[in-house]
Structure formats: C-alpha cells, structure tokens
TrEMBL record:
This is histidine kinase. It is an enzyme of class 2 (transferase). Residues 701-816 form the Response regulatory domain. Residues 1-28 form the signal peptide.
Amino acid sequence: MTSFHTITRLLLVPVLALLAGCAQPPKAPVYRIGFSQCSTSGPWRQAMQSGMERELSFHPEVQFRITDAHDNSQVQQEQIRELVRGGLDLLIVSPYEAGPVTPAVEEAYKQGVPVVLLDRRTTSPNYSAYVGGNNVEVGQTAARYAARLLQQHGNVVEILGTPGSSATAERHQGFVRGLVAYPGLHLVGQVTGDWKEKTLKPALTKLLQAHPEVSLVFAHNDAMGRGAREVCQQLGISGRVRVIGVDGLSGQGEGIDLVQRNVLDASVLYSPGGEEAIRTALKILNRQPYNRESTLGTLVIDSTNVLTMQQQTEKMVSQQHDIERQQSLLQRLRATYASQQTVLYGLLATLLGAVVLGGLAWNSARINRRINHQLALQNAENDKINRQLVAQNAENDKINRQLVAQNEEISSQRNQLEKLAEQSRADTEAKLRFFTNFSHELRTPLTLIMGPVEELLTSSPDLTAAQSQDLKLVRRNTQRLLQLVNQLLDFRKIEVGKMAVRATEGNLLAFVREIVDAFEKPAQLRGIQLRFVAAEPVLTAWFDGNILDKVFFNLLSNALKFTPDQGQITVSLQPADHGRTLRVSIADTGQGISEQDRAHIFEWFYQGDQGAVAKGSGMGLALAQGLARLHQGQLTFSSQPGHGTTFVVTLPREVSEELRSTELAPAPSFMVDEPDPIAVDFELDTPNNTAVSSDTGSETLVLVIEDNAEVNDFLARKFRSDFRVETATDGHTGFRMATDLIPDLIVCDVMMPGLTGLEVVAQLKDDWRTSHIPVVLLTARNAPEQQVEGVQAGADLYLTKPFNPTFLLESVRTLLANRAKQREHFRRELAVDAATVATTNPDQKFLADLTAIIEANLTKTDLNVEDIARSLGISRMQLYRKVKAVLGTGVTDFIQSLRLTKAREMLLDDSLTIADVAYELGFSSPSYFSTSFKARYQISPSEFRALHITPHH
C-alpha cells in the first residue's frame, strides 16, 4: 500500500500542476455595439464601414451589429428601436433625416444607452458624442484652393449634390462664403448632379456652351467631378478648365486615384470618420475621457501630396491585410490549442481512472509511463504554440507602432498646412486692418471741414459769387472724399463678413422708383431722357434697403456719367424665373465697355481706359457686385462698344430665414448732386449718408437743460466740439431725458419754470438710475449761501453767469476724468470679491443688486442683457449706459468677469472637474471656459488648480 500511495502521489502532483497551468486567463469584457446606418450604398458610406471594421479588428471583444435603412427615415426609426430591444451597450447612428430619427434616438438615450452621432446630427441635444466633418469648411477650402489655382481671377461653375441635402446646402454655403473674399472670382452658374456623374452631363454641357469663359468646375463629390471632366473632354476644353471634387477616398476610380491620373486637379478630403466613431465609442464604454464634439479636419489633395496620400493609403491597406491574415492564423492557433487542451483533459481523466482502478498493477505503471511521455510531448507542443503567440503579439505591436507613426506624420503635415493658411490669413487681416484704420482716421478731419463750410454757405449772405462757387467746390469734393471713405469701410465689412443683411418684405418697385426720381433733375440738366418701366404696378419682395440703395445708386450714377448729353437711360423692373426672382436692368446709350476692360470691371480699384472721361476710385462696381451677392442676388452686364451698356441685378423674392428682419424697412437715404466733372470711372460713389453733424466720434453724452433758447444753443455748440449733445428746455423734460438716455454729464440752469434746477439735481441723485451722473449748475444767483445751497442739493460744480466757456469745458473734462477714476475703483473692488461691495451709496447698491441677479443665474448659458434689465425693471439701453458709466465696461463683459472670478473659487475644490466648473458657471463648453480663463488670467484652469491645490500622496 505504501508503494501504491507513493505512486499515486507521484502521478497526482504533475496532474494537478498541469490543471493549474491550463486555467483560462481572465477575459476582456464583451461590448455590444449597434450601428444604424442610413445607407450602405456608395463608396463614401462603404469607406465609413471599412474604417469601422479596421478599428474593430483590434478589439475582438466587441460584438458589432449594423443595419441598413436604405435612406428611409421610418425604417431607420424601427431599426434603432429593434437594436435597443436586442440589448446594446452603445448605439452609433448616422441619421438620414434629423427630425424623424430624433424620437428613436432620444428613447435610446433616456434608457441609459450611450449614443454616438456620426456624420449628421439630430434635432435634440440628448446624445453622448458627435463625430463628423464640417461641410461649410469643405466649401470654404474649395473656394480658397480655387482662388489659388486661378490666381484669384476667373469664372467658376458649381455642381450641387441632392437638393435639400444638408451636405449640399452647407458645401454651397461655404463655397459662396469663401468666394466673397475674392472679388475676381465669379460664380456664373450651377448644375444639380444628385451625387451622380451621369445626371449632370446634359445640363453642364449647356452651361459650359453658354459660358465658354469658365475656368474651373467645383463638384460636391468626386464622382460628379469625374463626370464634369468627361463633359469638358467632349467639348474640347479639358486643357484649360480645372476640376475640384470632394471626398478624397482611396481605391480604383475614387478621389485619390482620379487626382493621380489628372482626371481631377484636386479633391477636398471629407473623412467618413468610421475609425474615430469606434474609438470614441470604446472610450465611452471604458469610461475614458473623450470629446463630446469631434469635428474631423479636411485638406486639399492635389499633385503636391497625392503620391504621399496614395502610398500611405496603400501601405495602410497592406498592413490591414497583414493584420487580418495574422489574426486568422491566431484564431486557427487558438482553435488548435483548444482542441489539444480537450485531448489533454481526456488523457488526464484516463490517467486518473487508471490510477484508481489499476494502481497496484505493473501494467498500469507501464501505461502511466506511456501517458507521461505523451504529456511531455503535448507540453512541448503547447510551449511551441505559446512561443508562436508571443511572436505574433510582438509583430502586432510593431504594426500598431507603425500605424501610430504614420498617423502622427499625417497629423504633422495637416498642422503645417493649417499653420501656413493661418499665417496667410493673418497677413491679409493685418493689411485690411491698416487700410480700415487709415480710412477711419480720415472721417473726423473731413467732417470738421464740412461743418464750417456749411455754416459759411448758409449764414454768410455777403459772399461773392466766386467765393460761394469755391465753397461749393470744397463741399462737393469733401463729400466725395467722405463717400470714398464710406465705400472703403463697406469694402472692409464685406471682406471680413461683417456686412449684415436685414431684409424686410416690401414693394421693390416703389423703392427703385424713389431712387430713379432722385436722378431726374441731374438728367434733365443734361437733356438726358430718364425712363422707368415696370411690368406690374406692385412687385413685392424681401430686401434690405440699406444694401440695395448703394447697388442701384452706383449703377444709375454710372449710367448718368457715361451717357452723353441728349442720350437716354432706361430702368426696367420685371419678374423672372417663373416669378421666383425680380430683374432690375439699367440700360444707357453711352460709349460701352471695351473688350479688354470687360473682364476687370468688377475688380476692386480697377480703372479702365475711358478716354476723355475722368477716372474715379475704381470701387463702385466692385462694391455693387459684392453687395448683390451678399443679398443672395447677382449683378451681370452686357455691352456693345458704341451702343451702350446694360447692367442687370437679379434678386430672389424670398431670402433665407437668417437674412430676414422683423423691423420695418428703412427708406433709402442718399444724396444726388450735380455731376462732378472730375469724378468719372466705371462707378460713381455710394450715397453719402453722412450729413454735416456735430458727432465727433466721442461716446460721451452731455445733456443741456436750459430754458433760454439762445443760451441753450450756445452751450450745445460749445460742447459739440468734444461730445455728443442732447438738449431740453425745461426741468420736467430734462429729468425724463436723463432717465431715458443716462447721459455721462448734465449741465442745468437753476432758475427754470415748473421744475427748478435744484429740484432736478435732487431727483437725479435720489434715483439710482441717474445717481452717478455729474451735474453742473449754471445760474445768475451768485450769493454765497445760494452757491452752498446748490452744492448741498448734490451738484458737482456751481458756476455763475456770465461764465468763461473755456473754464466750463475744462471743468467738464475734469469731472469726467474723476468719474473715470471712480469707475476704476469700483472695478478693483469688484475684482477682489463681488460679494464685498458695500451699499453705502446708490451706485454701490445698484452694483450689489446687479451682482446678485447675475450670480443667481450664472448657470444659464443663455443669460443675456435683456433678462437682467427686465429683472431690474429698466430698459436694455438704460442698463448698458448705467454699467458703462459706473464701471467703464459692458454688461456682457461684467457677466464674464463675475463668472471667471467665481471660477477661481470653484477650481480650489478638487472634487469638481474643470468641465463641472465650466457648466456650473454657464459656459457653453469646457474649451470655451479654458480659453476665456487663460485670456483673463494668463494661465489655464488646470495650471491654476495645480498651483493652488497640493496633490494628495
């Protein structure tokens, strides 16, 4: 028995060791991810799915299920609900239509399933993350590259995708917005291709035949770009027409291949985002930090980088195939290992049975030795398999490192391109800023020239005819200089996208007729017949009068300038395009435009050869075309030398919602003087809206309250040289204007009927809206006790009549300077801690109330000035001027200051993340909070927290 126990122990020890060695390693968690795809057809959607599969090849623990809605929103809703009912850890959705799919996505999100939106959004904020490209940026990138190819001069055709598609609308919007920066580029026509190359060919052939001057075609995807190239080859113009596409996919017949074969000149990359969507999903499931909004970048693929892109793509595909082969081998090895493991368990069971049933027999011993030998062989085989697995893992790590290095190289190239583009934009911005600042500097001296000239012309009856004529010449040329300055400022606004369109619905016919009537007298003086013809008595449309009066004024001035005496100008207005647009044409009988000038008349500062006609600034027509485009319209022309020129403005009767305004349309404000013989070009200046004014550009407002009309006028004229001035002739009106306007300083007479100056001062100081305003009292009462009475009432300065005007002006400046110092004191006091402001006077009480209202609503991202003013019971303008007077800053800046001051306190609490602080204080995103915090304190929130919080060890 001893021998049997010994043998049993000798056999059981290695068996138990083998069992322990065969224990299964812990498995990674299994995730179930569902993907609701709007459609799996088309190269771009297939590239998206391929990217997902590539990324998922690194994560065998993920169970991935995809559904195809075949571009049907109703089907996609049901598929999303079916995916959720089947059990999901995360849902990825690429919506076909935002609105119809939103309810199903919200249901999944509210059930606790994280949702990642891919490529397109829903109408609800209930989602975990968004991954997708920026179609507006794609359009702008195409416009910038087109300008580079054509050296900023040429005619362009655009091929649109499916009508109503968000990608079509946004790419078109970005392309048109990008073209605004290049006045030399003209969008002469559009063709709808519906994303397919065959659909566009008939319409594009007709368009290119009608416009043989086209130099470039921008197609919304590469397939339509390929079709455009085939049309150009059929027409024999392929050599001079450039073609730009969008998508930049790899593979035979796709964007990179088409650029490589010179079918396309370039393709704008629009990444499908499949890999990024899977990476974001896994970060969410593994509870790792992730970006809620992941906007994929874009770049232009052309002859300079297409070979690199193609090589990188082919290398990635090759490596992906290697990975798939290696993973297949790994699966086979694992299957072999599992099979051999099963055999091993069977052998072990046989061995144990043999030990129990025949342990005492020598035959069993021989069997045991044979089994041990087999186990040794099996262990050797297992060791060999393990070594192969280790080698395979090392190879996979090497491939992963290569892929990471390639991604970093691509990112570095993209960053370098973005840096160069940003530098170019900065250089252009610096030039435009200098140009605009210089134009602003001209306004004040020119206005100050006009003031005395107007006064001499209107108040000097003893002027000789020659003197009057000279003064009129000075006025006319000063007005022209101001008009040029206004045009330069409009040019600057268009360049930087600051010229806003506020369209209202009105009668365009009546609007144009008013402008034509203004030119009637100058035309009669030269014997020119000015005719206005309309197809209908009333033609309504949505339009912005402030924009269009500059367009029509330039065109009519142009016609008047180039039409000879006894000639004719005809203005006609009629519907077009089945009533969807209105056409305004202005035809003259002048000398026409020469052949060499036609391609350049819409360029900024271009001056053509007009013979004996004097040149102008070269801005009017360029400005008119830019404003017409801004109004979603077009400005075109036709001309025959010796027979005149016709300019045509085509305007849509309906404009997009963002251009509409609920305000009433202002009447056109312009001035037509006699034709200037020294101001001739392809354009005439825009209407001069700057009348002789007292406004010197100062924001400081002085209110004069004086019942004597002559003294009132004298004071107003004296102050207008330095300030904006409003006047009142009695105390009641003056107090009402003070509470409405919140001026920076008040000059008030003491002896007035109704409400005296002392009573006005007392009411102003008792009202917290006006308590901060300095008051200067003027009076003929010069007794010492009367002066003391005025100061006790709250006046800051008491002057007796007659007074020295120079002393009065210097005293006002001193009071305003002291008020500025007081504002600085309040700002310093608030910068330390807004809660410590003492309510010792009405101004400080106002600040305390204002601060309390803002702090109570800091979490609201949509907190605005109107809400705060409503809480205080005052108007928006009263609140703005009160805060500006007390603190020297705007209400929005004050809200931001309070939020950032509160942020410093909250960052000291290490239980809150930086994102928690950002959302708690009403910032729209953590990145915007970090940018604002660093701009204020020159240190990021994370650096601030690291400096003030001792890390836990």
